[in-house]
Amino acid sequence: MRPSETASPERILQRLEWQVIRPLDGQLQGDYRSLFYGYGIDLADLREYQPGDDIRYIDWNVTARMDTPYVRQYMEDREITAWFLVDLSPSMDFGAQTDKRRVLVDLVGTLGRVLTRHGNRAGAILYSGQANGRRDHRVERIIPARNGRNHVLWLINDLLNQPRLARAAPTDLRAMLEGGLHMLKKHSLVFVLSDFISLPGWERSLSLLSQRHEVLAVRLWDRSEVELPDVGPLWLEDAETGEQLYVDTHDPRFRARFAEAARSREQALNAAFRRAGVEPWALSTGEDLVRALVRFASIRRQMHRSRTGLAGRPAPSGLR
Asked: What is the pTM of this model?
């Protein structure tokens, strides 16, 4: 069994708190706004300054007109409801050293704990990729959005207990995204966690989801999916259907075609994310999670500043 399957939810969360969340607190200085918020910093209100308010949020123009200090309040200061749309189709069990499902468990545990320890709520919609006869025929389980450490343990436990599915048919992510559209009524922060190995046609559903919610598309991938090692003849197997193909990895032309096909797929995915108005985040199974989260926060912060031209404006307190 893989390490993520033998450890208890408590042991996993303890490991994440010590090895990921504590270092992350130090590097982000407790400010997780750049991880969780997009480019729309909406001014919610102005109110008179009160002792204890952060002076960085004083609106000096209004203060000058009213002859008394006023501070800005932003939408981000309000409670967040976050949802994880989790792809548990067979291809998510793939990984040369660490499989994508284990990385997914760690990521949900980390983000869930960071969110809920500040009073925000997190829930999950688990998608199997397999038809099961119900109306929401590919949604395996819905975990209501709640807060607290025990709830994060519940999320981790449910992810660990979902069976690894037998290969059957190609995954269709439209069901997962449409499930999110139908089930999530309140404006939420939505993490779509998948390798996006799917039948075509999911892009429109992702676009509709992003029109109602703030959506981050987290694409999990493994290096062996984009770069074949030179190990001679071997059998390649489709993680979704079980179809096998005999290839000679010693052939440099074959490895080059394989790498080119992987690059073309990545370019097509990024184009689909752009059309849907969704910000993508590619996370490798071999990447250190702390470095990946810090890198992602830095990229989001830079992109936000370049788009809004507000490099000098202080960030709201968010999740500090």
From this structure: 0.81
CA 80 to chain centroid, in Å, comes to 15
Q: Are 19 and 50 in contact (CB under 8 A)?
A: no
Number of independent structural domains in the chain = 1
Give the C-alpha separation, 107 to 85, whole Å. 12
Could you give the count of Cα atoms lying within 13 Å of 207 in the half-sphere of its Cβ? 10
Q: Which domain holds residue 219?
A: 3-30+79-287
Does 53 fall in a domain? no
Is there a domain that residue 237 lies in?
A: yes
234 φ, ψ (degrees, to nearest 5)? -160, 170
Asked if the structure places residue 14 within a domain, the reply is yes
pLDDT single digits (tens) 178-195:
989 999 988 899 999 999
What average pLDDT does the segment 69-76 reach? 67
Those residues whose C-beta lies under 8 Å from the C-beta of residue 148, and which sit 6 or more positions away, are 116
- Among 144, 137, 141, 142, which Cα is nearest to 169's? 137
Where residue 22 sits, what CATH number does that domain have? 3.40.50.410
pLDDT in tens, 220-241: 999 989 988 888 888 877 777 7
Go through 165-191 and write b for each residue having 16 or more CB atoms within 10 A of its CB, e for each that does not: bebeeebbbbbbbbbbbeebeeebbbb
Report the chain's terminal Cα–Cα distance, integer Å.
38
Tell me, yes or no, whether 304 lies in a domain.
Answer: no
Q: How many CA atoms lie within 13 A of 228 on its CB side?
A: 23
In one letter, which amino acid is 179? G
